[in-house]
Design a protein that fits this description.
With about 130 residues, the protein is mainly beta. It has one domain. The chain contains 2 helices and 7 strands, in the order βαββββββα. Strands 1-2-3-4-5-6-7 form a 7-stranded antiparallel β-sheet. Strand 4 and strand 5 form a beta hairpin. The longest helix has 15 residues, at about 110-120. The chain starts with a strand and ends in a 5-residue tail after the last helix.
Length: about 130
């Protein structure tokens, strides 16, 4: 399992030149696999901003569209990857992409609290 750290920041204004919509989000990601650090940033277009939710999309990948849904009431974030219809990709690479994948993103404090709680239940020391 490769752990990834994500940081999402959204603003309701200033994104017109970056993504084509006034509201935008910046997604910064860092992971480490096989001793190599991978860091990336992505500008996301906000397609909805209301009192209850913010929906940001990234449709630049060849095979799929990613949606990030911020539920402002429950303070949760969900990410959906949805396969684009009729897209084949290089050497039919899109055939190997699932139709839909869902990810639930977790706050860092919640992650460590849950990890400590599970370790305590199993009688293991926490890191």
């Amino acid at each position: 399992m490769i752990e990834t750290d994500e940081e999402l920041s959204c603003l309701p204004y200033g994104g017109k030149d970056l993504v084509g919509t006034e509201a935008f989000c910046l997604e910064a990601s860092a992971s480490s696999s096989y001793g190599m650090l991978n860091v990336s940033t992505t500008w996301l277009k906000v397609v909805e901003w209301s009192k209850t939710q913010i929906i940001a999309v990234n449709d630049s990948p060849i095979c799929l569209t990613s949606q990030i849904i911020f539920d402002l009431r429950s303070h949760s974030v969900m990410s959906l990857d949805i396969k684009k219809a009729g897209v084949k990709g290089l050497f039919n690479s899109c055939d190997n992409v699932p139709d839909r994948e869902t990810y639930y993103l977790q706050d860092e404090a919640d992650y460590y609290q849950r990890k400590a709680s599970l370790a305590a239940k199993q009688g293991k020391p926490t890191e």
